[in-house]
Amino acid sequence: MPPWPFSSLKIYIQEPHSGLVSEFGLHFVKNGTIEDVYAKILVKAETKRIMADYDVDYRPSLKEAESIIEDAQKFLERIKEAISQLK
To answer: Which residues 6+ apart lie within 8 Å of 24 measured at CB?
Structure first.
């Protein structure tokens, strides 16, 4: 199995989710590897996750859930593309 393409990248995340979002922007968006629209997708998904986990009154609509899934699919495809460009 080939080595992980980001093995030389050292990322120190103190908080699992918010740290990941921050480090993603710092290491991939800021240097131009990934477009900022994908960072916005990640922030939106994290915000909705927090709402779903901690806001007892929050109930996403079907339209909202479909939008998040569509964004996640776009995000995943772009990340796969970025990884394939590193090979």
So the answer is: 34, 39, 42
pLDDT for 2 equals 46
Confirm whether pTM is higher than 0.85. Answer: no
The three-state secondary structure class of 73 is: helix
Do residues 58 and 52 lie in contact, with contact meaning Cβ atoms separated by under 8 Å? yes
Determine the 3-state secondary structure of 5 from DSSP: coil
Cβ neighbors of 27 (< 8 A, separation 6 or more) are 9, 11, 33
Gap between the Cα atoms of 50 and 41, Å rounded = 14
Which residues does 74 contact at the CB level (< 8 Å), separation at least 6?
38, 41
